[in-house]
Amino acid sequence: MIALIFDMDGVIIDSNPMHRESWEVFNRRYGLETTEAMHQSMYGKRNDQIVRDFFGRGITASEVDARGRAKEQLYREMMAGRTEGLLVPGLRPFLDRHRDLPLAVASNAEPENVAFVLDEARLRPYFRAVVDGHQVHNPKPHPDVYLRAAELLEIEPANCVVFEDSYSGAAAAVAAGMRVIGLRTTYDSLPGTVLTIDNFLSGELESWLQAKMRCV
Fold first, then answer.
1. β-strands 103-106, 195-197 pairing
2. What is the pLDDT of residues 63-102, one digit of tens each?
């Protein structure tokens, strides 16, 4: 049996535009204008890493935590009532078709954000395991979140298929010994992927999965 493991931002929900906008609004509170390079640097990272990148390594741990929480609260306020319309096309029918497989979420996102998306979009019942970036010591690009998800699903990493949209996420899944399917929501292509798709409406994706399931 294979397991399917999903990153969240850019895979389950096309939330990167809202993260960009909320970072811009939040950073202006501190007189900081958010450049495109800053936006590009945040994809796939855990929040504490982003805050330190944006505000400097000299910021205290308590202030990193406070600013990260405040920004994500702003993000959730801006997202409220919009999650269903921002789900990556084809996601819910795809989950319905494959709900008998072990499914998990493994994300660097804040636990409150993961809970917000899964609960507001009514997706939580699909997933047997949910791992966020604070349940492991090392965030992506380290493999910890994906290895923990496989452990909770009781599936060998080699039999796990990961859906990712970021360089750090793809690197984490490859390091975990898993096959990676890339989504073009953030980048056109990612290193180490076995397949790249626009979204979950892809017929090529279904063909690949069926072939993979016959081999396991």
1. unpaired
2. 998 998 998 899 899 989 999 999 999 999 999 999 999 9
Fold observed for domain 16-79: DNA polymerase; domain 1 (1.10.150)
Distance, CA of 185 to CA of 10 (rounded, Å): 6
Strands (E) across the chain are located at 3-6, 103-106, 129-131, 160-164, 179-183, 195-197
Instruction: Give 150-205 pLDDT, tens digit per residue.
Output: 999 999 999 999 999 999 999 999 999 999 999 999 999 999 999 999 999 998 99
Beta bridge partners of 195: 181
Nearest to 19 by CA among 79, 86, 81, 107: 79
From the list 172, 15, 44, 168, the residue with the least C-alpha distance to 160 is 172
pTM for the whole structure:
0.89
Cα atoms found within 13 Å of the Cα of residue 36, Cβ hemisphere only: 0
Residue 87 DSSP class? B
β partners of residue 179 = 161
Q: Give the CATH number of domain 3-15+83-215; options: 3.40.50.1000, 1.10.3720.10, 3.40.50.300, 3.40.50.620.
A: 3.40.50.1000
